[in-house]
Amino acid sequence: MGDQIQFIVEKLNQEPFRKNYNLISFDSLESLQLLQLLSDVLGEIDPKHAVDIREEPPEQTAKRMLNLLGILKYKPPGTVSDLSAFRQGLVTGSKAVIHPVLHWLLQRTNELRTRAYLARFLVKLEVPAEFLQDDTVADFNKQYEELMEAFKNLHKEHEQLKISGLSTAEIRRDISAMEEEKDQLAKRVERLKKRVETVQNHQRMLEIARQLRLEKEREESLAQQKQEQKSQLFHAEQRLQRAQVQLKEMQAVVADSKPESLMKKLEEEINFNSYLVTEKIPGEMESKKTSVYFLEKVVAEPAMTQADLTALESELDEINAQMNQLIEKRMITYEPTDSKFSLYRQQASITSRKKEAKAEELQAAKEEMSSLERQMEQKSSQAHELEGSEVLTEDEFKQYVNKLRSKNTFYKKKRQEIAEITAEYGILQRTEELLRQRHEAIQQQLQAIEEKKGISGYSYTQEELERVSAVKSEMDEVKGQTLDNMSEMVKKLNAMVSEKKASLAPVIKELRQLRQNCQELTQERDEKKVQYYSCAAGLETNRSALEQEVKGLLEECAQEESNYRYINCMKRNLEIQLQRAKEEMKAYVSPEPQQRRRAVREQYTRIILEQENLGKKLREKQKVVRESHGSNMKQMKMWQDFQQLMECKRDCFLKQQNQAAIGQVIQEGGKDRLVL
């Protein structure tokens, strides 16, 4: 507890609070001051809560703080497990309640500030279900939910951009590295230019090299264009094949089928789609909305304790018991008229369940078929892009596997040779190091001998002269070889250019032929497409006309059926009323008193007498209450005054205790100073 208070005091003395508290002054704060301090901390987290609690009713203050703590997901500690005690302690400013809250808030101020900011836009307003029946309210609620989802996505993108942003130091380092690399490349280019300028006909050679580079780039671009056009041709052939297959299927359907079968298929498809739209999908949407509504309601409620869960479980058990009792009563009072319809109800429910299951199976089969078609198209395109337009057969795949095995064996052999060479390189490196050490020792001995003879530096000078002469001879040889290489390279370049031109000529000729074929196929595809669309438009027109006619007939049938049922219901009601009138007349005219008591008139007369007697009793009770009202109000006023007097005494007693505790602390401090 002491560490907790010390942490709270340290945080309150820092920015942005700057309260200048110590442990004694903080511990001596009164309940109102503690509540104001808690309100200031909550106001730092959410600016809407920066208010003066003296200008606010206590109930409003407690409600405001509890709402914000619920949004921030604060859970009371184990010592304040009872929520009612926690609320009471928050209203009265109890230290045992406010100190843990302050400690929890000051530990995670930045996190809670973000959570409070998000809560302004993400805490969903609860709209009663009866209001959502209105279309306007439902549209506004849907728009509100869409905006909330958009805000969530934008906030996530914002946080990701903040995390993934590059620092300026890294960018500067990259720029400086690229500038250094640029300078090095410029220096290398200058050195190469100086070396080339000494060669004869360097301008002509540079021009030939530039032409060679351009021809290579052109060759690469032509090869890429050829590959792209092959891919386009392959896709066009696939589309053409699919179109031809569809055309054949449509022709077969049109040739083999009759208008009645086409209409039957269309009616089945329309019935299936209408069932999905009117029954299945709305039911699923309604169930999803209901579950989401209940889940949001559960999330919005404060954290539940074990006692609350136990109470809910007991309440659920009671409701289940009541349901079982009602079901038993219904089974006992089961009328024989309902048994006639029970069989039909059962058959209807079984049929509806089967219908829903088959609809789901059909929908799943359609989705699976579409996904398999997409996968087939992807696999075929991938097989075409992987260096060939055909999928490998079984024999070709076996050859490919054998080739891979031979390459794997060759790779292992070369890897073993590399390991041997690496081991030999380590041995040679060690030998070189030993020889270098021996050389350094001999050089030191030679320098010592030269110093003794008085000719120090002779060996170094001799080595430099030998090295310079060797470098000069090497440079002369390199210059000669460079000229020979340049002439040979020019010859090779000319030969390569001529060979490339000769090899590209048939490819270009073939490419022209392929372009012409592609144009012809495209024109033929456009003609087939126009024919298909015209045929589809005619069929669509006939289908829409037939649909309108069927719709009108169905509406007429439904109207006639409704009229028939309405007339039957009216007839049955009139028969029941006539039967009741006959029975009433028979009972009223009957000379037996037992039969007369069953008459409705006698029953209503008896009920009227009972209500009149009850009204007399209530008027007498009202008179007694009015006579004792004054004395009761006076007694209640006396009890309220007594309660205020006791509360005043309690406050005076608490203040006296606090003052006595402060005086005792001051006396102990004075004694410690005297001892010192």
Automatic annotation (TrEMBL):
UniProt key word Glycoprotein: no
Ranges in a coiled coil: 137-253, 309-452, 504-584
GO molecular function, one term: tubulin binding
Subcellular localization, as worded in the UniProt entry: Cytoplasm, Cytoskeleton, Cilium basal body
Keywords assigned: Acetylation, Cell projection, Cilium, Cilium biogenesis/degradation, Coiled coil, Cytoplasm, Cytoskeleton, Differentiation, Phosphoprotein, Spermatogenesis
Domain spans labelled IFT81 calponin homology: 3-126
A GO term from the CC aspect: intraciliary transport particle B
Keyword Ribosomal protein among record annotations: no
GO biological process: cell differentiation; cilium assembly; intraciliary transport; spermatogenesis
Superkingdom in the source lineage: Eukaryota
Family affiliation: Belongs to the IFT81 family.
PANTHER family named among the record's database cross-references: INTRAFLAGELLAR TRANSPORT PROTEIN 81 HOMOLOG
Protein name (database record): Intraflagellar transport protein 81 homolog
Species, as recorded: Sylvietta virens
Protein encoded by which gene: Ift81
